[in-house]
Amino acid sequence: MHKTLFFFSTFFPRTLRFLPPFLAFHFNPFLFQLCYFLILSVVGFLGLKLSKPRTPSMPNNLDLFYTSVSASTTSSMVALEMEVFSNSQLILLTLLMFLGGEVFTSMLDLLLARNKLFHTTINPFSHSHQSPTNATQIELGLVSIPHSKSENHTPSHNVACIRLKYNSLRYLTYVVFGYLVMVQLVGFSMVSFYMTVVASARQVLKNKDIKIATFSLFTIVSTFASCGFVPTNENMMVFKNNSGLLLLILPHVFLGNTLYPPCLTLVLMVLEKVTRKEEFSHLLKNSKNLGYRHLFSVSRCCLLVCTVFGLNVVQFVMFWSVEWNSEIMEGMNLYEKVVASLFQVTNARHAGESVFDLSSISSAILVLFIVMMYLPPYTTFLPVREEENDVKRNGKSAVECVVLSQLSYLAIFIILVCITERKSLKEDPINFNVLNITLEVISAYGNVGFSMGYSCGRQLKDDGMCKDSWVGFSGRWSNGGKFILILVMFFGRLKKFNMKGGKAWHLS
């Protein structure tokens, strides 16, 4: 693992230095990530197409591409039964989820930022005291260095600041990659041990002919990347009585998503105390100015932790009060009910794994889940302003944050799906209704993967050709509907570039 870390974090950044300076200056982060996910999805599709599934019949190309996009964007929208995929295909999907996870892609952003810093400034490893012509014109891609005539900002001082910033980003890259590998390695080891020791869980995999190592690696990578894919058709429903397994998987929902910034800050604080290196101190003191969107100040980390657990408590209380005595809880004791309920509501914030059939959950809870899936992972309740002159919050109405913003685009996508599926909405209104479509679209946008599924028993007219299968609701949509949802998955994965959408509109 040490050799892998050395290669990825040292050799690859050095290779990036040989990119043409034009690319270093002009690459667009949005276009870069869009191309990255498109290429990843196409390569994944080709890999799934060339490898053999378990079943004799090959799934159609659109469903394979749909699955590849779903894994690459960590959306986990299911158009095919998971047990259709062979062991080699499951490993390929695991790789797609790993490469498409937010923590991994953020590390690519760090590497590109370091490369841009290298090309747009003095070589940080040079001992020359030659300075740029004007420090204010240095485009770091992270933060510009203010030009000052004071003695504290001499050319040598500017070079030292650039060198410190570059080295800080280098150390941050090591920390992120180490965090990425160690968390999943520990999770994989613990889940593998559990599946080997606990006979009931091991028997499930044996009956489904799924290898323990494949299941453990696939599930941990999927959970950490907030994808929600599980190698079993029933997702985690088949393990709802295995509370120990749910508790082992549950922390990874937080560690790779909503609580990643606080955990990263905590790791940096520990390293700063142990190593006493200036770079770690610089990272902690300049979290807002380094351009890494996952690095928060200590105060915001505390607020984020409170918000995450506060929203979870609200969900848990509502879910418990409404569903405690429902049929989905049958056959479970008090301890199993608590753990399963906690696992379900926690996954509603982005991971998307499910221990209960969503079609059996009350509409009130489904609406709550829709709201939670819409919220960005780092939604934070700020009772006070972090800065005295918070210009971004002054003079902004609620309308500016809504009209033609994320909600507007989602409304357009829902309308388009209702148009493509208008025949099914008329002939099969119980399965195809606006609430189910809305949940599916918001789930794809939030890259969650929750789905109502489809039941032939809910059809008003039995055509005699319907066959129940463990696929998501969108798996029953027309090709046009699936294509729209593919766009939604890409839009949701790249939504961080449009969080300020709609603010240019003024209504009077």
From TrEMBL:
Chain segments annotated as transmembrane: 27-48, 90-108, 176-200, 212-232, 244-271, 301-322, 358-376, 397-419, 477-494
Keyword presence, Membrane: yes
Coiled-coil region list: none
Molecular function terms, GO-annotated: sodium ion transmembrane transporter activity
Annotated Pfam families: TrkH
InterPro entries the record matches: Cat_transpt, TrkH_K-transport
Protein's membrane topology: Multi-pass membrane protein
Location of this chain's protein in the cell: Membrane
Alphabetical keyword list: Ion transport, Membrane, Transmembrane, Transmembrane helix, Transport
GO CC, any one term: plasma membrane
Family: Belongs to the TrkH potassium transport family. HKT (TC 2.A.38.3) subfamily.
UniProt-listed PANTHER family: HIGH-AFFINITY POTASSIUM TRANSPORT PROTEIN-RELATED, POTASSIUM TRANSPORT PROTEIN DDB_G0292412-RELATED
Name of the protein described by the UniProt record: Sodium transporter HKT1
Organism: Phaseolus vulgaris
